[in-house]
């Protein structure tokens, strides 16, 4: 970059305008406008074309060279044209940016003189296609007093559907072309998602080992349902001893291992990701507001005036994105240690995804916002822009918070917002995050899929690919009468399918059984208890009744033994009363005889 009284060099960033302090006054002597065209092709390649115009405001100042730094790293076919002539640029790639610089062909001197030139290239960092969906992210354009006008034109293939999400709203939409201009694109990135659902097919291998001499009980975490994802377990082999759901709604499969036994478990599954989160079934526990060794918001580092002013999820997200800096060298360490949030905040220039997540969770809980950590699989076409920080396979961590207005858990990703230099991961997520474990009650348990290596961390244990939409099966059940306790009848409902059931269990009443209905939340391959009440019971007999319990609209018959608990008590009570009555009569007769005998001897 040259520096002369009559020479000027400008650096423009795709998404961010970078100016050296001594150049700010010089830049004011130019009036700059630019138009950026993004044309997305069917194969996912985006052709980018910058048309830049500089107008001299003074007769004694002119530019000799130019440079841009774009927030993309996979650039091809870079071309620069100045005054109709192609110029060979200097291209320098860094971790998450590419710099393009070149000298101008001629000096443009004189007040009100215009200088127009173009920069174009192809990249795969703008648009990503996954199965049925497309995601387009254009880095934000920062406002600058020297830029009088900015225009962005986004052209997508004609086969694209109406976007499920686009922000900011375009000024004009003409068929498959979206026009953005003005100050609203100077402050934020442009994001668009085409498609409302995405499906993935996956296989996970869990490798367990028992080095002890005793039989042990252990468990593995299966990918759970969340507000954004629904999971279908197609095959879990070998079958677990039992399956249950913990307080975080993790699905845990229980296995017993004999001494010195190794066990390999395979899960084949399909996951459906929705763009719009589903409402929560229950209100969040206040346990999601508490502090612990990781989310230690009672540390003095959280007492600054700036932190005390953070009262909303959005303000906390913005603080974390701006305060922490991603450390690409940290992800390559063999054993990155999980540090408390306070330490992550102190060492804010060396952060990975767990640091971004832990600081957000700690700050949110401190502000009275229910929050927890998610760990799982993230699909990234470019790890430089969207790094995958956990060393086990390609796992990633991101937080979620409970939005009381939406009554839903909202997932966000401050890490990727930081590494992509401003892509919005607060108002929308994407179809690239698959949850393997939810950490709310415990910041480190359960271990997510991908962490069961049996000592060999080099083994690949996760395989996931995008697929076309499929129809998930309906859950199927078995119903068994368990017992009667007083007036309560208890049934065990077993979910025999690989999909969760969220719905009611109903039973029609009769002369012995009341009409009953109960909400059931039953994970795949697990069971739940359904309780109803009796209206009356037989006095001295057992009655085998045929009842029908309705689940998901389907009837499931069961046999109920009404009176099985009380009849025996009634019979025993009756026998006892009879024996007592007989004893009283017999004793009375005995006393009479004794009285008669006594009177005879007088």
List keywords for this structure.
602 residues, Immunoglobulin-like, C8orf32 fold, 8-stranded mixed sheet, 4-stranded mixed sheet
Question: Mind explaining what this structure looks like?
Answer:
There is one protein chain. 13% of the residues lie in helices and 41% in strands. By secondary structure, the protein is mainly beta. Mean pLDDT is 85; it is low at 1-27, 564-572 and 593-602.
CATH topology of the largest domain: Immunoglobulin-like
Count of distinct strands:
34
Question: Can you give the helix content as a percent range?
Answer: 10-25%
Number of helices: 7
**N-C termini distance:** 143 Å
Q: Based on helices, strands and strand pairing, what is the structural class?
A: mainly beta
Shape: elongated
Taking all residues together, what is the mean pLDDT?
A: 85
Low-confidence stretches: 1-27, 564-572, 593-602
Cα radius of gyration in angstroms: 35 Å
Largest sheet: 8 strands, mixed
CATH architecture of the largest domain: Sandwich
**Biggest β-sheet: strands ordered side by side in the sheet:** 6-5-9-3-2-12-15-14
Number of domains: 5
How much β-strand is present in the residues? 35-45%
